[in-house]
Amino acid sequence: MEFWTEPQMASIHKMLNPRSIAIVGATPRMQYGGRFLAAALRAKDRIRVYAVNPRYDEIMGVKSYPSVTDLPEAPDLVGIVVPYDQVLDILQESHAKGTGSAIVISAGFAERGVDDRRDLQGELGEFARASGMRISGPNCLGLANVKDDIWATASSRGAEGLTGPIGLVCQSGATAFGPFLVRAVENGIGFSYIISTGNEADLDFTDFARYLLDDPDTRVIAGFVEGFKRADKFLEVAKLAAERGKPIVLIKIGRSELGAQAARSHTAALTGADARYDAIFAQYGVIRVQDYDELLEVAHLLAHTPKPGVPGIAVVSHSGGISSLTADMCGQAGLDLPPLGEAARDGINGVLKGFGWAANPADVTGFANSESFPQIMEHMINDPRMGTLVVASAGADAQAQQVISQRDRTDKGVVFLWTGSRDAKTGLTQLKNARIPIFYTPDKLARGLQCRLAYHTWRENRLEDGFATAPPRTAPQDAAIAQALGFGRPTLSESEAKQLLAAWGVGSAREHRVNSAEEAALAAEQLGFPVALKVDSPDILHKTEAGVVRLNLRDASQVRTSYAEILASAKAYAPHARIIGVLVQEMVGEGVEVIIGVTCDPQLGPVLLFGSGGVMVEIYNDVALRRCPITRSEAQAMIAEVKGARLLQGFRGRPAADIAALADTLVRVSYLAMHLEGHLAELDINPLMVLPSGQGVKAVDALVVFRGT
Description:
By secondary structure, this protein is α/β, with parallel strands linked by helices. The chain folds into 4 domains: 6-229, NAD(P)-binding Rossmann-like Domain (Rossmann fold, 3-Layer(aba) Sandwich); 306-465, Succinyl-CoA synthetase domains (Rossmann fold), CATH 3.40.50; 510-586, ATP-grasp fold, A domain (Dna Ligase, domain 1, 2-Layer Sandwich); 592-706, D-amino Acid Aminotransferase, Chain A, domain 1, CATH 3.30.470. Helix content is 39%, strand content 21%. Strand 1 (20-24), helix 2 (32-41) and strand 2 (48-52) form a beta-alpha-beta unit. The protein is flat. It starts with 5 loop residues before the first helix and ends with a strand. Mean pLDDT is 93; it is low at 258-263.
């Protein structure tokens, strides 16, 4: 599916690189319309700026026109700051004039909640898509082409000299032009563009991110989002970003789930929406961070340091305490500080002459602020096991220049942990101006370095493996889906769910569905004792809770008695439940119990779950998650993530389980979820028994819930 067209990208290009801007609703007062005009006029030597307001002849020294129609040309971009109920009229007039794109600052749309007004926001989106005149907003603060110093924004803030390789896209305009802009100025972090998308009636985060992937001046995309209108679009951007080597760093807000819907399957109960985002971001190489500073620092680090050739971190400081704490934080983040090689150690000792400590981390005392410091850095960074050099200090301009020079003559990453005042003018200002990545606390430094290493490692593996795609459905799979949907019910019974799974090669325990006690006894004889009995009903989803399961039945008499008990329990638990029959099932002996499930997230699509079996999965939430479909290597990674899955390797004399068959099953279930997308809500295989190596897997119970229920 093609999500982006050339005309759409051309419209975004005009929005971000306008030669002419008209501000409809411009005023002399420094409210939104006045601020937008004032911001645009900062570039009046390079772009043509028009004010549109019939109440004025002139505003801020430029002629004010009564309407867009009266303008002497069709502007590339129109900024709209009028009451919400006039916006669509202005857009239609602008389109008739030949305008290429629009920013709607006006609020009063979907952010106000549902009322009896018509869906004006929906109408804006429909107009944009039909006309080809694309819209950012409504309820946004506009955008800035920072590299060309063109500020098409209703924010009162601007900045000079802020150019850099980070493209910032925020759904919240007040966040983009507030804390991010302020902190970027303070910390010498530069942007290519700052874009606020607001309510996203038309263009959304993914559309602007897609544009930035083609922008040669943007190396990292930083974002602040609440959610995505379409997960498949976002994941397509993530895939393209991986191919291009442009990291996406995000703050995703909405971690706490209020009013979560009751889940019908174990899988849905075990996976909060935020855990799904964490897992899928990791799967697609998106770096999730927690706060404003971390977003800027990590994006800046990725933009201004190369991919580490080797993972080793070298740390040098004037203080043993500072270097040791930094090393501790790096160690806790899973980073490697290898011991210095003999050549580096001898070289540094030759400089220190008995003072300080030639090690990694290195404590070089007063030599950190001496003419010998470049030699020490050189020895450390040239050690073949070191891929990145961290300098932890708070030196003056001379030390800063030494570090900058070291960065300029090496192909390895150089990062600074500033241990002095954040208001310092000497040293710190030089480092900022040179775009040296700076951190202020050892834990944030370690987290940043870990993100950088994890991203590059992930990308290397991903480019080798590729992303999964589900194969086309087979004729038997089409028939199985038609049959399952043909029941016309929101849920399948256990036997119906297993029939569906069978079309994707997921094996089940041997069983017979019966409708009398005598049939049950006969079926048990055929299967061989011991057996299990369970009710088969689409309306009783939690069978143990309903008392409709009997295990380890060892003779025909027990089977007959259990059959009657199960039907009585079912009637008592759910008097109106449909009873299709009773399942007589083999007791699956040797094997390791696990759970496989799928939850269809309204934003993220089908999410696959793998977890350890039994009560442990619910007590410890011992699960791994991925977005469907998955590759075989992703299936193996899921198995490795789950602590309880160590039982699969054989434990205290038990045989190793069929991990290969389990990995195949995870892949097949991920394909099933894709093939059922749009219909599936929840799926559980719980438990799935993983038999000894070479013997495969068997689904012992299964649940399928369809959408629209």
